[in-house]
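General statements about sequence and structure are easier to judge against a single worked case. In the encoding step, the backbone of a single protein was reduced to a row of integers, each denoting a local shape. The record that follows shows the chain in one-letter code together with its fold in token form.
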Amino acid sequence: MTNDYSTDPAPAPAGSSPPRRGAGSLRSRIVWFVVALACASLTAQLGRWQLSRAHAKLAYEALVAERGGLPPLPGAALARDAATGEQQWQRHIDLSGEWDAAHTVFLMNRTMDERAGFYVLSPLRLPDGGAVVVQRGWIASDPADPMKAPAVATPAGPVTLHGHVAPWPSHWFEVGHGRGGAVRQNLELAPFSAESGLALRPVTVFEDANPGNAGDGLRRNWPPPTAGVSIATHYGYATQWFAMSVAFLGLWVWLQFIRPRRAAGHSDFPPDAHADDPAPR
């Protein structure tokens, strides 16, 4: 027997089902949809960025192949300004001049075939009075003293070489050895031009291997211009990011609609009709 002051919940009417448990209010669903949409948008943008990297590398590979098939440039045609220099990247070129061995630079922490060493860069004085920095090759560093400048033979007098035009070496984070000295981390056009007193061209030249330089101890199996992350890897990363976009939206649908309905469906089943039966004798 109950009275009007009882705080016990009123019993549910006979035959009625228990209240269903939903995923929350409409406001909650909207909030979580905005969160899922933001995450999906971010990952989709990252996927598009990876696709753009892959497409840029494909275009550059096609450009390298096209320019590599053109006849070599004569030395007199070497670019004198940055805009022209960019149009000459990866073009083969024949050069004549004299080495300026006194200003040879060794760029440290460069690797070739997974070995640590130096890129050897020397200015080549051109017949017109200008100069161009030639990336002559790679040489291993001394394990006992990695910062020691190695001995590299530099021919005296007029030389001729064959190579391909390239931009200046990319700037690396400075670790101890900055500007000045034979061994350094980076080489910049304007400071090195002022330091050497040479009218340097805005490009460099990778010297290619040939019988004439085979005995100088330098290796010239230069990495391809698109070395690094492969195009297939960029496509793989893009696929992963797009899959994450779909997963964020799918997870929202699952948590807000499918899973609550399944849980509510299970709660509608009547209790076991035989639960209160006495145990069989």
Summary: Residues 169 and 193 are 15 Å apart (CA to CA). The radius of gyration is 35 Å. DSSP finds four helices and eight strands in the chain.
